[in-house]
């Protein structure tokens, strides 16, 4: 259930989904940059981080 919530957060606010998965690391700041440059790249990166982290 936690992954579903993180993915929904990643779709609405990608940096929040990444923050709840990895914290304030490099992936979080990269996701903020990607979200600023384009919303879709931020979503793709966030979902990828969440899926990769929970194998």
TrEMBL record:
- Write down the InterPro entries for this protein, in alphabetical order: PMP3
- Pfam families on file: Pmp3
Instruction: Tell me yes or no: is Transport among this UniProt entry's keywords.
Output: no
Record localization: Membrane
- Check the record and name the PROSITE patterns matching this protein: UPF0057
Q: Which PANTHER family match?
A: HYDROPHOBIC PROTEIN RCI2 LOW TEMPERATURE AND SALT RESPONSIVE PROTEIN LTI6 -RELATED (PTHR21659), UPF0057 MEMBRANE PROTEIN ZK632.10-RELATED (PTHR21659:SF42)
Report what the protein is called: YqaE/Pmp3 family membrane protein
Q: Which organism is it from?
A: Microvirga arsenatis
């Amino acid at each position: 259930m936690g992954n579903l919530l993180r993915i929904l957060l990643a779709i609405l606010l990608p940096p929040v989904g990444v923050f709840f998965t990895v914290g304030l690391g490099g992936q979080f700041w990269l996701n903020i940059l990607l979200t600023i440059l384009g919303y879709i790249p931020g979503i793709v990166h966030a979902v990828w981080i969440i899926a990769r982290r929970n194998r």
